């Protein structure tokens, strides 16, 4: 049972956290075991490394160089360019553990950045953080950790791994504001067996308190934000840069096909969006209902047209029983809503709004992640009625 920390900045807090290293579930304690810690140079993974070391295990820090912004200042997007790598190295030096840096820029580029651009061009709204977790972080890092003879791979993700009767389960973090379970739905059972997430049971201020207690230079380092390879938030600008010939304008049409205006490229739009349509003189507010990439059309309609009764999912990852009632989260910031899964069709108990192809539908039983899939297409509640 995890104990609450009542002294956020005290020695007691740190001792509790190390004792909590039951997350590593290494039979007979961690001595004699080898833990590889995925280190991004931020405070979270640095504290994971400190906890791993304190558990008595041989600890090795591994950093993937994924993307270089061509500058030296860390954050806001940060994805292990110069300064972050140096920060990770400094933490490892302080802890007296080995640190290896691997250049995975080209795999990150193909698996995450190029795919991000192509998804936008196909009229979908991508979630690159899931692709990154599935590719560079969990596939590439896995292989590296195994090559290094590790017993487990530990990361600073805010999720919990609990062991039930059927084996390792993925659960939400205790801190709802930090929970990253939506972005980890595609973690396989095999990966889950090997992964450890020691921060999922802690609030962030406790993590920072441990970092300060340990004298880690990153204790006050700001959190990374948004999508690491788009630090200025200009997604459309990045897609234009990557695919200069593919971003063409087209028509904005209503549900009946009537042309209402023009747009500079479908990459600027996402289902449910209202801003930026620039089609005045309409009797009621209009929203993006659908993107039609072949015709380069943006289809708009009233809010009622956004109501979705069901979604077809692809690449379903199963981590628990999916046959009963469950709750489904269809955007990272959405609240989970009651639904049921029939084959690959997710049927909502009540119409759901803003369901966008390209996003993930993550399925929960309370705090437990039962699995999830990619939203391929949606069924309008109006048509289903
Ligand atoms: N480039 C990287 N190399 C190795 N591991 C990484 C890298 N980027 C992220 N990770 C691992 O994935 C975890 C989650 O990454 P995420 O980007 O969501 O968080 P973060 O804010 O970067 O965390 P941190 O405070 O550790 O920097 C990190 O805590 C770390 O364990």
From TrEMBL:
This is tRNA-specific 2-thiouridylase MnmA. It comes from Sphingomonas dokdonensis. Residues 248-301 form the tRNA-specific 2-thiouridylase MnmA-like central domain. Its EC number is 2.8.1.13. It catalyses: S-sulfanyl-L-cysteinyl-[protein] + uridine(34) in tRNA + AH2 + ATP = 2-thiouridine(34) in tRNA + L-cysteinyl-[protein] + A + AMP + diphosphate + H(+). Pfam families: tRNA_Me_trans, tRNA_Me_trans_C, tRNA_Me_trans_M. The keyword Glycoprotein does not apply. It is found in: Cytoplasm. The gene is mnmA. GO terms for biological process: tRNA wobble position uridine thiolation.
């Amino acid at each position: 049972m995890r104990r609450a920390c009542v002294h956020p900045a005290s020695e007691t807090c740190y001792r509790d956290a190390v004792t909590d290293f039951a997350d590593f579930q290494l039979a007979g304690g961690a001595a004699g075991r080898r833990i590889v810690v995925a280190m991004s140079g931020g405070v979270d993974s640095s504290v994971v490394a400190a906890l791993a070391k304190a558990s008595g295990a041989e600890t090795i820090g591994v950093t993937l160089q994924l993307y270089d912004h061509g500058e030296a200042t860390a954050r806001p997007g940060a994805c292990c360019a110069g300064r972050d790598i140096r920060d990770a190295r400094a933490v490892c030096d302080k802890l007296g553990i080995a640190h290896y840096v691997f250049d995975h820029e080209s795999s990150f580029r193909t698996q995450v950045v190029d795919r991000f651009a192509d998804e936008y061009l196909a009229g979908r709204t991508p979630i690159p953080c899931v692709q990154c977790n599935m590719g560079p972080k969990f596939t590439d890092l896995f292989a590296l950790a195994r090559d290094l003879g590790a017993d487990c791979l530990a990361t600073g993700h805010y999720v919990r791994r609990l062991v039930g009767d059927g084996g390792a389960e993925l659960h939400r973090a205790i801190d709802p504001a930090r929970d990253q379970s939506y972005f980890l739905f595609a973690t396989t059972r095999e990966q889950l067996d090997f992964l450890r997430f020691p921060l999922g049971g802690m609030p962030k201020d406790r993590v920072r308190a441990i970092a300060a207690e340990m004298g880690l230079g990153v204790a006050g380092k700001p959190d990374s934000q948004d999508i690491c390879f788009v630090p200025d938030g200009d997604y459309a600008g990045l897609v234009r840069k990557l695919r200069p010939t593919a971003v063409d304008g087209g028509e904005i049409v209503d549900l009946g096909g009537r042309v209402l205006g023009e747009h500079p490229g479908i990459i600027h739009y996402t289902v449910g969006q209202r801003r930026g349509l620039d089609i005045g003189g309409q009797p009621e507010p209009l929203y993006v209902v659908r993107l039609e990439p072949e015709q380069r059309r943006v289809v708009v309609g009233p809010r009622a047209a956004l109501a979705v009764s069901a979604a077809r999912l692809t690449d379903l990852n199963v981590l628990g029983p999916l046959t009963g009632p469950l709750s489904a989260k269809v955007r990272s910031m959405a609240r989970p809503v009651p639904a049921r899964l029939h084959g690959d069709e997710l049927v909502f108990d009540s119409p759901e709004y803003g369901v966008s192809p390209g996003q993930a539908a993550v399925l929960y039983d309370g705090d437990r992640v039962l699995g999830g899939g990619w939203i391929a297409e949606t069924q309008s509640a109006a048509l289903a009625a």
